Amino acid sequence: MQSLASRMAVMTGEGALSVYAHAKELEREGRSIIHLELGEPDFHPSATVNDALKQALDEGKDRYCAVAGVPSLREAIAAYLHDTRSLNVSADNIVIAPGCKIALFMAMMALIDAGDEVLYPDPGFPGYASITLGLGGIPVPFELSELNHFQPDPDEIASKITARSKILITNSPGNPTGTVYIDEVQRRLAELAVKHDLLVLSDEIYARIIYGGQYVSLMKYPGMEERTLIIDGFSKSFAMTGWRLGYTVTPARIVPALQMLAVNSYTCVAEFSQYAAVEALKDRDGATPRMVREFGKRREQFIRDLNRVPGFRCLPPEGAFYAWVNISETGVSAEELCRVMLEDAGVAAIPGAAFGPAGADFVRFSFASSTATLQEAVERILRVSAAWQPTTTAR
Q1: Which of 248, 327, 300 is nearest to 81 (CA)?
Q2: Whole-angstrom distance, CA of residue 322 vs CA of residue 206
Q3: CA 96/CA 70 separation, integer angstroms
């Protein structure tokens, strides 16, 4: 029997989905599980978005459409990025995809040849390294250290750039750390990209979910417009996870490549959902700011509660909706701790190593759940914390 392609042996899964699958098995056995493993808002699109979807279907907008996306959505995204990030991009430089993961995958497929090196954050989204390996590239991690407030270290990145370096991946606000890159760091990253002629994949899926200050895209820095691809979508900021809508903002010269990949894969994104996305971007009733304010309240409460758990230490994230908890003082591994929490307390969370080796002493919780659910989760964890209390180091 013929073997699978060799790329399948080097690609990896996603920790959140593995934990979710185990948690669902326990639920089927009748267990009560609190799901804090998935990055999925517990909100839903506003009624106006759903109405726009229904109207599009009623009007027969269920046909093949433009490969890069319907013009009205691409124009709406360009206007949205101008209003929310002060970016001046052309609708012609935007390609719609069925989800951010596909947008990321297609961008990397268009850019990576065998042997190309891709610099990416560790801890970070697992797909960065996995996709790179699957395409024959070489993933080169740079550490987001707690000692550095989980900011990238430009000096470390500079030391890892070689003649084979082609892409720098950034993610601000970041998954899993919630870090928003500061101006000094972004300015240095932009300088490195220009100096070494690197392309930059700026993963901005959490750009609207920040807790103070104004978000600044890496594309805003000198020399970055012609070398930056923004990956973004509707899952997080608009609570449209199941709609599978993402997009890439890219230099004009790369647009044909992304369109060619679309033609050879998904053809186009569902027409009716694109018209509904136009309505989401308008956000007539302020759904996104309202959701972010609620996340901010949960963040304060949840971080405070988590720091009551013996051996847990958590800094408030600056963006996204994840608590990145240092559990090194518990004396047990993150994997064992997550097993105890899930199987004994019914709380699903993700061991930090799922996001890279630098996350080994951490656990990620999503706080995209109600305040009452988050409080119940912490109470459950406290009840089983005796499993690690005896080895906790005094603070």
Answers
A1: 248
A2: 11
A3: 8
The DSSP output letter for 341 is I
- pTM as predicted: 0.94
Distance CA 264, CA 256 (A): 12
Give residue-wise pLDDT tens across range 122-149: 999 999 999 999 999 999 999 999 999 9
- Spatial contact of 308 and 164, defined as CB atoms under 8 Å apart: no
For the segment 258-307, what is each residue's pLDDT rounded down to a tens digit?
999 999 999 999 999 999 999 999 999 999 999 999 999 999 999 999 99
Gyration radius of the chain's alpha carbons: 21
Average pLDDT value for the chain: 95
CA distances from 37 to 7, 177, 321, 324, 329 (A): 27, 14, 11, 12, 22
CA distance 351 to 355: 8
Q: Where are the beta strands (DSSP E) in the chain?
A: 34-35, 94-97, 117-122, 138-143, 165-171, 199-203, 228-233, 246-249, 313-314, 322-326, 347-348, 350-351, 362-366
> What gap in Å lies between CA 395 and CA 390, rounded to an integer?
14
Q: What is the pLDDT of residues 56-65, one digit of tens each?
A: 999 999 999 9
Which helix (H) or strand (E) element contains residue 274?
A: helix 271-282
Report residue 163 CA to chain centroid gap. 29
**Size of the chain, expressed as the number of residues it contains:** 395
